[in-house]
Write a structure and sequence with these properties.
Blueprint (H helix, E strand, L loop, with lengths): L7 H8 L27 H47 L78
Helix pairs in contact: 1-2
Amino acid sequence: MAVALTGARALTGIWQGFEPTFSSGATSSPHSSMALHKPPVGLHAALDAVRSENDVLRDANRIQQAQLAELVERNRTLEARIVDLEARLRTSSRNASKPPSSDGYAKPAPKSRRRRSWRKPGKQPGASGQHLAQVADPDEVVTHSPERCSGCGRGLAGAPVTSVVRR
């Protein structure tokens, strides 16, 4: 089973097992008379493959960087738009110069200017009640007598008085 290696793996595979040898083994410095064996035959082809793969990856990186810059700019534009729209949502006729009809159906409840108290509304227990009491001899008596019967419509001029109410 043969595995095709590309790029840096191919280069590593070719150089594996390659040992440089020096022409004179007794020299103290390896740089003095270094004569390396010729590299393996497929090394130039592997190096060209790595370079072409590197060029492809650089082009892909440039494209992705351009796309990233475009997306970052689009994100900034959309965030600014969101901030503007949220600010417009918070405006109403109470905090902006808009008519009350633009508030829609969700109008806030009217707020009372009275301070809250622990007392219930009406007369408090223990307080003296104030009223206009009836007197035995009033200053003025008003008599209300209907002219016609509300049921049949006949005149009530000679009819007897049936009840008297004092108020």
